[in-house]
Structure prediction request, 878 residues.
Amino acid sequence: MHLALFCTEAGMHAGGWRHPDAGAVRPFDLGFYRELALKAEAAKLDMLFVADKLGLDDLYGGGVAATVARRPNARPEPLTLIAALAGATSRIGLGATVSTSYAEPYHVARMFATIDHLSGGRAAWNAVTSVSDSEARNFGRAAHLDHASRYERADEFIDVVRKLWDSWEEDAIRPDKASGRFADDRRVHYIDHEGRHFRVRGPLNVERPPQGHPVVIQAGVSGTFQDIATRQADLVFTVQPDLDSAKRAYAAFKAQVAANGRPPGSVKMLPGLMPIVGRSDTEAEDIRAELRALIDPVAGLTFMSGSMNYDLSRHPLDGPFPDLRDVITGSRGRFQRVIADALERGATVAEVGAAYVESLSFAVAAGSPKTVADILEQWVTEQAADGFVLMPPYLPGGVDGFLTQVVPELQRRGLFRREYCGATLRDHLGLDRPASRYA
Amino acid sequence: MHLALFCTEAGMHAGGWRHPDAGAVRPFDLGFYRELALKAEAAKLDMLFVADKLGLDDLYGGGVAATVARRPNARPEPLTLIAALAGATSRIGLGATVSTSYAEPYHVARMFATIDHLSGGRAAWNAVTSVSDSEARNFGRAAHLDHASRYERADEFIDVVRKLWDSWEEDAIRPDKASGRFADDRRVHYIDHEGRHFRVRGPLNVERPPQGHPVVIQAGVSGTFQDIATRQADLVFTVQPDLDSAKRAYAAFKAQVAANGRPPGSVKMLPGLMPIVGRSDTEAEDIRAELRALIDPVAGLTFMSGSMNYDLSRHPLDGPFPDLRDVITGSRGRFQRVIADALERGATVAEVGAAYVESLSFAVAAGSPKTVADILEQWVTEQAADGFVLMPPYLPGGVDGFLTQVVPELQRRGLFRREYCGATLRDHLGLDRPASRYA
Prediction:
């Protein structure tokens, strides 16, 4: 079983930052993230990975007032954050979210290759396509790219990045002071990429990363996502609200991986999971109820508006939630079921805003350490997941119960490593190290 | 006197990596850079700053063969490198070179703001405009932007970045768990920038950096550079081969700063200086001669071709150096004097290639610790410099003589700090902390 820790500035539950056991939010304090990374490393987790958006969630009401006033919404830039953590940790993988919609492949290839070197082979890139006009407006555009264009761009972007990582073969650098020969130029290659979105000649000016390629993560639920991820990803991070849907998604995804000529085990599937751990099942449910009571529905709607790329303030809080399934242009796939459920229940806008941001449709595992371990064991045993992306409700304390009580229980059951066996993140994940296509 | 250490993968002297006292080149080893940063911090230097180019110097001969085979030419990405060093150091400033020609202001503002937070106010940005077609071809262009366009873009780019740093006023984030109020939205501002090169709405999604604005460094010699830097820069890094030219440049620059309505002390001028320290002046000259003998003229020409954006392999090695003063499109200003000198001396192409890369036209201070300290004292006393960017001939050992013998001599003379007095790089440099324009 593989376990990654999803790292945000204040945890994933919309009420989390207000919980009495949550520390003061310190979104820009290296000490906060270092402490979290070291805890996760002590528990032998595969990876810590950092979420991102390229702007504030200011669509709701057309301004920053609602979002900035009501919830943590500013965050460190992920590449520089995981680079800072590379020096503070020694074994755990470090992932950063970087959008393909507003970046250049040469910069992205180079930064991840550099972090892979500085960390000794522990870097991972969560490639996303961004969701909202708020992000587009920080990069010279009036509106975000449409769904098809941004996925097409993402597909080519990842391809270019992987070519750049291949542009230096293994051991090209062999300095010899006496002769003055520094490297073997026959092992350094132009990529000469000419595509619809990018023209990149290469070579990269960073030698081949320790992992060959840093691990590529993709997240999503749409068919377009699945088409790309089954070809391009090393790990997928998915939204599955329950075991049955997770089993169906796992089977379909792995079948498509195989159909693309890749071994099913070469892409790991990790659904997000919010653990709420108590001494007993009852205590965990009490914590869950306490957290739920701290949710501000409007704060929830600011988040939802950003993810949907649609201003929900157009609809009164106490009116019925509208049918926006064909209207939204942000994370479309992710909201189809959320909206259908809301319509079926006749829920109000405020109710949906509050309910959605409890766990953002990710499964919640609330219970005693044994109960939570049972849930994880069942999902993995019944082929619903290769592991989980843990989404703590609040941070830093909200993950302690999991790390100190659930992880040892999983270790006792032989479901999770007691020690790191390899040096790189690919080793932790059981992923092969790719060879250079130019070798 | 202010002292910055220029950090490259193998030192600045073209023969440096081959010197017997130079360690093995480890361009991607965090330990190499950490050791260097800690040594510089122990000597109380203001800053370490990292050079960059966005590709290999492959213009010479139209391929990677000459450059990759003959000299260190691949390097870590600077932002991620200084982020990694932020966690390993506690007082020294950390600067990274980032080109304005192939980046987005939102990303750059955000990364430097993040590093400023993670380091507790020690970040600096060396804003450059790039020089060669080799770089352009990694970013979808056939050729580099012309001189005027790239400086115009740089000017607007820096302006946008500074606006984004201002978009959060001081202390906007004031989380209150009880009321659910997270931040004061009246202190968070759209920048609504609409310029010739960029449209950026903001706000940044990072709160105001500890320094207000991270320190902005610019490097150059042209009139266009001076026009922008006297308005925009906090520190300039210049090429001055000797005391007289440095005094003239210093006076002219500070006069223009004043003419722009800024106090002359609000922009520090630090010429680059290559220190070669021996136990005696004779020993230092011997080391200099030893290093010079290790230069490969063709390796020098690959570097020069990249900086000129002109393929010097068109001219035979033993033929006269051609008059390229109106032909080159890279670092134009910097090569006017180099070429004039070559023509006057009737030097061959190989001779110029070898001579230029000894110190890249930066002044060389070779001598005993006392002699080198005398040179630095004279430059500062006679108003030729506010300090220096130290360019060690090789690394990591090539800076030890300076740090352990010249710095103590400067301290004894009362010319350099014995301890850090403030917490931030602006404190070290004696620069004011700017207020937000939106406050």
